[in-house]
């Protein structure tokens, strides 16, 4: 696991020093190797300082900051026949035998740019990649955009990176999320994107609850089996609610050691729900409790990680950070979480409001629009946080097959207006079909920022400063986000 950078010097000058500057901004703890490459030469070193002393002369450079997660993981870039490549992520189907990036490299070997789209089209996985050719870079991202990738340009550089701060470090102020399911041809004059594979909008299909329930269950079982293949242990972000309980129930059948992790501020009702859910599932639970001081202390780090100042994003990121931190401390390398389920199956309260006010067609479009933006709303934030802790986040709900199926479901299978706006109805039916206890199936949805008490704590901290939360975060970010490297 690691972070990608890629840069083209528009003046045709050597971009190696620029690439090193970008990698320095990604020099977090647990990074073991740094590598850079032109189309025909590559260097991998154990430190940035050692990398700076090496000479690669090219106006096109790609690079990688490497942290080992699984035994088969190896430093990158990798050499192809006429190019070099960096691949960040995992493949789940077809299952690679060994190192994911080497598997992809073999597929790209003879015709890197020509076969790049086939990686996105044919493989199920969470990934982003860049390829350095003689006169251009080829880049791509998986169909749901699960692994972060950003792009931008200024008068001097055209560049891509796994984190915005790498682009900021070379003066690219306006950055954009690389579109999911696309390939880009990158030259010194900019980006040319080509659509390969994404979820497309369609009218709701005539699907019954009786037919939808087993299909979703089958897709989830397949996804969890793929994401746990070869593992003997895994951690799971656990709330005691519907999404995490379904994942826990299915994961328990595949991996002998499933460790549930619950984080929260003290005295929140969700704590007892998590304990009760873990007991019903027969799985070990570790509960970690925090207070308002902990929230305030961690906030500068959070803003640095998420690279924005949105109050909602910050309040969600804090419990994600605590969960990833404890996952690392406990020695687990892979963390499962339920992200994606709310968008796919109508889990947010705003969907009920939209349904009530504007009808089924409007809410169907609203849910679809959120599904295609999941990578920007949730995935990028959480992967950047987990990456800092050398924890690999895996999301069983976030698969192309699941998203495609869920996007076609009629709203009435997701939202039940006659029962005070019950949400994720079909997913509750899956839980019932699996035999989960009724208190889990019927548990009302509460967003993590409210369930953990973090949102309220942030509001109190801001009020003590005499500011709105938005103003407070903006002021703090002025110093935090100006930093291009973070130090413990």
What helical percentage do the residues reach?
Answer: 40-55%
Number of domains: 2
Mean pLDDT: 94
Give the CA-CA distance, first to last residue. Answer: 20 Å
Q: Find the structural class using helix and strand composition.
A: alpha+beta
What is the CATH topology descriptor of the largest domain? Rossmann fold
Explain what you see.
This protein is 42% helix and 21% strand. It is α+β, with helices and mostly antiparallel strands and 488 residues long. The chain is globular.
What would the keywords be for this entry?
488 residues, alpha+beta, Glutamine Phosphoribosylpyrophosphate, subunit 1, domain 1, Rossmann fold, 2 domains, seven-stranded antiparallel beta sheet, 20 helices, 21% strand, globular
Summary of the model, kept short:
This protein has two domains: 2-195, 4-Layer Sandwich (Glutamine Phosphoribosylpyrophosphate, subunit 1, domain 1), CATH 3.60.20.10; 209-480, Rossmann fold (3-Layer(aba) Sandwich).
Write the layout of secondary structure elements.
Layout: E1 2-9, H1 16-24, E2 33-37, E3 42-45, H2 48-52, E4 60-66, E5 78-79, E6 84-93, H3 100-108, H4 112-122, E7 124-132, E8 137-141, E9 150-153, E10 157-161, H5 164-168, E11 176-177, E12 182-187, E13 190-195, H6 209-228, E14 233-237, H7 242-251, E15 257-265, H8 270-281, E16 285-290, H9 292-306, H10 311-329, E17 334-336, H11 341-345, H12 349-358, H13 360-372, H14 374-388, E18 392-394, H15 400-407, E19 415-416, E20 422-423, H16 425-434, H17 438-441, H18 448-451, H19 454-464, H20 469-480
